[in-house]
Each structure stands twice: as structure tokens, then as C-alpha cells.
Amino acid sequence: VQLQASGGGLVQPGGSLRLSCAASGSIFRIDAMGWYRQAPGKQRELVAAITRGGSPNYQDSVKGRFTISRENAKNTVYLQMNSLKPEDTAVYYCNAVIHDYSAYNDYWGQGTQVTVSS
């Protein structure tokens, strides 16, 4: 099983980016999916997560600016990021809890850099 993230880049404050993360491989079922981020010198933190049924939850600092969504048929999770701030700069990682025909396991994508700067 692999998670492939894409969509990061450089954006000015107030701008928008959309991250995507697609899971592939031996997948029986995907439960929760989410996005984490890690800024230099800081611990990795949860940004947003979404259940298989589509219920989201967000870190307080991104509420009202970020939207997480998923397409179960495509094994894909998205993160729409609007009104970006310099403090959103970090490497963003996608995460998924996947049953791979043997057991549920925690999988991570490779990380995509998001830089918010003028």
C-alpha cells in the first residue's frame, strides 16, 4: 500500500492551495484519512481528519480556512487550503488507516512542502 501526496508549493499570504493524496495497492477498506503537518523545529501535528462516512474535524487554527474531503471510490483525500498564512508553512503529510487484507495499519504519504511567503 502506498500513499501519494501532491499539490504543495509556494503561495503568497491569503492565497490557496489544494492538496491531494491517493492510496493504491492491496486495499480492502480505508477508514479514517487525514492530513498532518510538521514545521521546522516543531512536532508533527494533526491538521484535519475525516471519517469514512465524511465527518471532518479540524485543528482550531485552520477552522474556517481549510476543508478536508474524500472520494472513497478513488481512495483519495483532499485538503483545500484558503486564506493561507505564513504560519501554515510546513511539510504536509497524508495519513490513512487501511485494511490491507491482513489487518488495519497506519500508512503515511511522503510529504509535500507548503510555503506561504510574500
Question: What does this entry show, briefly?
Answer:
The protein is mostly beta strands.
How many strands in all? 11
Low-confidence regions: none
Major sheet: size, sense and barrel closure?
7 strands, mixed
Mean pLDDT: 97
**Ends distance:** 37 Å
Helix vs. strand class = mainly beta
C-alpha geometry: elongated
Helical stretch count?
0
Q: Topology as H/E string?
A: EEEEEEEEEEE
Determine the strand fraction and express it as a percent band: over 45%
How helical, in percent, are the residues? under 10%
Rg from Cα? 14 Å
Characteristic key phrases:
118 residues, mainly beta, seven-stranded mixed beta sheet, four-stranded antiparallel beta sheet, 11 strands, elongated
What do you see in this structure?
The chain is built from no helices and eleven strands. The chain has strands at 2-6, 9-11, 17-24, 29-38, 45-50, 56-58, 66-71, 76-81, 90-99, 104-108, 112-116. The strands form two sheets. Strands 2, 4, 5, 6, 9, 10 and 11 form a seven-stranded mixed sheet that branches. The chain has a four-stranded antiparallel sheet with strand order 1-3-8-7, with no helix packed on it. A hairpin with a 5-residue loop joins strand 5 (45-50) and strand 6. It is elongated and about 45 Å long.
Q: Which secondary structure elements does this structure contain, and how are they paired or packed?
A:
Layout: E1 2-6, E2 9-11, E3 17-24, E4 29-38, E5 45-50, E6 56-58, E7 66-71, E8 76-81, E9 90-99, E10 104-108, E11 112-116
Parallel strand pairs: 2-11
Antiparallel strand pairs: 1-3, 3-8, 4-5, 4-9, 5-6, 7-8, 9-10, 9-11
